[in-house]
Amino acid sequence: MKRFILFLTFAGFVTTNASAGGLFQDPTDPELLVTSCTEALQLFEAFDTDPNKKKFTTSRNEAFYSGYCIGRIEQYKQTVSYCGLYDPSWFSIAQVIVEAQKHGLPDTAQELLESACE
């Protein structure tokens, strides 16, 4: 019985994220990184204006995308010594990633991270 409940819980999680395109999107796609960082910036900017708003208005998809953005940036900063050297916050790097969309995106998310850290 416990296995069945666990399966249903997992199936619900996969269905929720798959319907938003979150779980099955290509992690090398720069659009996923831009979308995720946009969500993260909007979420934390809303938190700055009203701390109580964040915990009541955050959906699973917003949390998923925000976590993806922050995680990708933090992981990249650990592997590349110069990333975040002058401004180590993930927030400032996420801002550069979102702004990069205006100038045309590179082919991969890795290239987008590299350009954001220059």
Automatic annotation (TrEMBL):
Which positions carry the signal peptide feature in this UniProt record? 1-20
Could you tell me the keywords of this UniProt record? Signal
The highest taxon in the source lineage is Bacteria
Query: Is this entry keyworded Signal?
Result: yes
Write down what this protein is called.
Rap1a immunity protein domain-containing protein
What organism does this protein naturally occur in?
Reinekea marinisedimentorum
